[in-house]
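To illustrate the input format used throughout this study, we show a single complete record. The first block contains the structure-token representation of the backbone; no residue identities are included at this stage. The design step must infer an amino acid for every position from geometry alone.
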């Protein structure tokens, strides 16, 4: 079917282009040249219309299963590059998006470092009550895996200590909201005993109770809304993206080394939590195949993706495999989240250690460090000369959160990025583009040097402006969603439009690249979260 479409379109284009060429050969006068010019312009308009119509028609046939290409992409997908030789099975080549290439990637080496404090932070969990019920007082001892607090709205889900040690402080923010529960780790870690479970005979309900009691449940999040999953729900499918395309993101092919057994056991556990499938998003961008731990696993459905960021986002992958809605929910996890769940069975304990990539141009010793979940940031950047002129980010530069050296890594993050603060103004700003910088605009010649890496700062190069339609967002988001119209629907509290425009399919990380490219400098991630919270409260 695809070959037939290619031949048809190629023949039409050849005939259309041949017409003005023939006219030009027969014409010599200036008037004839003018006529030929008009014909060429008409031909260009015709070809453009042909492409747009073909794009829509092929997209419709793809959705109906008549064309063997993914449902999005249409005409342009017919001429997309072929997948790499190692790709087998379902494959999606996405073209929209943008890769931000920065200096400061972590070296492929690992160091285990001791930390003086770790913290669990209730604000890391979307929808959590500002003041959850804390089960320990400062000065009390806890074991790794002991429940520290629970949400008063959902008391069945327990949030446990990642380490054993002494509860040092319960820090509060505005309106006495609890922001951090700080623990000083023991030198020799002690673990709460985990009951043994036979995966061959355990029921789904018993397995869920086991994951809740051991503290592993918060690693499972739900789409829509990006909440900690509700134990009573049954997801249509479970999704895990095995690669990350965000700037300076950790390399999961490197992280998985030596943890293959835990990974495989974690996937086996997930298959028992859904009546659908466990989908793995695999990276088809590179010249070499991903790690064998990802490609050889047989208990999950493998789907390949290629393209620029945000192709590695699990939300983008869900959209192209089995989209979610208000009634069709999915559960999602990260690679290291799956490993922690697997360790419950391979090690018989709640071991929340993870590899964290230290990245950014302002980090001198860039590497991977093995630390407990929620480690204190000052321990990670120890020996670095960091001042107020530097921005410390838990996560990546697009969707991470600003931190101080006395702060702590967020619950789901496996990356710490340090870049310069953008406190200095540039003379004439964008009017005189004197310095190269990552940009989606053709104003800068970056597009001619796709492999150049940049040093960046936090300067937005402009203030918040009128929210005008530019088409930039649609070029950044490889989903059948109109982000700009959705953002405006959120700002006007139009619930019906918000749902119709696909708000349930998005999380903040999916819209972060649109915020980077936004000419109007709108806080799109904040706007999206407002919309998601409104929809969730409406039920």
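Output of the design step:
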């Amino acid at each position: 079917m695809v070959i037939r479409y290619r031949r048809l379109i190629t023949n039409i284009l050849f005939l259309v282009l041949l017409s003005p060429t023939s006219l030009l050969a027969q014409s010599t006068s200036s008037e004839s040249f003018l006529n030929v010019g008009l014909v060429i312009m008409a031909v260009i308009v015709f070809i453009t219309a042909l492409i747009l119509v073909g794009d829509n028609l092929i997209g419709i046939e793809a959705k109906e299963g008549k064309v063997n290409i993914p449902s999005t992409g249409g005409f342009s997908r017919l001429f997309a590059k072929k997948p790499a030789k190692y790709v087998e099975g379902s494959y999606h080549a996405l073209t929209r998006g943008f890769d931000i290439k920065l200096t400061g990637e972590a070296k492929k080496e690992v160091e285990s470092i001791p930390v003086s404090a770790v913290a669990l932070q209730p604000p890391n969990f979307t929808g959590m009550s500002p003041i959850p019920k804390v089960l320990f007082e400062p000065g009390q001892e806890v074991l790794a895996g002991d429940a520290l607090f629970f949400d008063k709205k959902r008391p069945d889900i327990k949030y446990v200590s990642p380490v054993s040690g002494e509860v040092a402080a319960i820090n509060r923010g505005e309106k006495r909201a609890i922001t951090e529960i700080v623990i000083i780790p023991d030198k020799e870690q002690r673990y709460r005993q985990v009951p043994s479970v036979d995966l061959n005979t355990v029921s789904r309900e018993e397995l869920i109770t086991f994951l809740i009691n051991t503290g592993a449940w918060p690693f499972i999040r739900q789409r829509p809304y990006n909440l900690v999953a509700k134990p009573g729900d049954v997801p249509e499918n479970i999704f895990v993206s095995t690669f990350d395309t965000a700037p300076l993101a950790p390399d999961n092919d490197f992280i998985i080394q030596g943890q293959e057994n835990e990974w495989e056991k974690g996937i086996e556990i997930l298959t028992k939590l859904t009546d659908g499938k466990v989908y793995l998003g695999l990276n088809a961008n590179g010249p070499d195949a991903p790690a064998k731990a990802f490609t050889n696993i047989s208990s999950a459905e493998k789907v390949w993706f290629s393209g620029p960021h945000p192709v590695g986002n699990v939300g983008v992958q869900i959209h192209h495999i089995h989209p979610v809605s208000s009634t069709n929910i999915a559960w999602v996890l990260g690679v290291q989240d799956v490993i922690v769940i697997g360790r419950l069975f391979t090690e018989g304990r709640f071991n929340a250690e993870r590899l964290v990539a230290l990245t950014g141009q302002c980090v001198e010793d860039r590497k991977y460090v093995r630390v407990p979940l929620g480690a204190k940031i000052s321990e990670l950047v120890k020996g670095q000369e960091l001042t107020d002129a530097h921005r410390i980010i838990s996560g990546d530069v697009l969707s991470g959160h600003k931190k101080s050296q006395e702060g702590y890594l967020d619950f789901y993050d496996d990356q710490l990025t340090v870049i310069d603060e953008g406190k200095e103004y540039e003379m004439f700003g964008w009017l005189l583009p004197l310095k190269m910088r990552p940009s989606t605009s053709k104003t800068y010649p970056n597009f001619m040097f796709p492999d150049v890496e940049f040093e960046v700062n936090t300067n937005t190069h402009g203030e918040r402006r009128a929210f005008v339609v530019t088409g930039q967002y649609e070029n950044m988001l490889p989903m059948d969603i109109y982000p700009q119209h959705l953002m405006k629907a959120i700002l006007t509290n139009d619930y019906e439009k918000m749902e119709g425009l696909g708000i349930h399919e998005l999380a903040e990380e999916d819209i972060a690249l649109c915020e980077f490219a936004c000419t109007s400098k709108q806080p799109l991630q904040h706007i999206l979260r407002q919309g998601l919270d409104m929809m969730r409260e409406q039920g």
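Structural context for interpreting the output: DSSP finds 15 helices and 20 strands in the chain. The first helix runs from residue 2 to 26.
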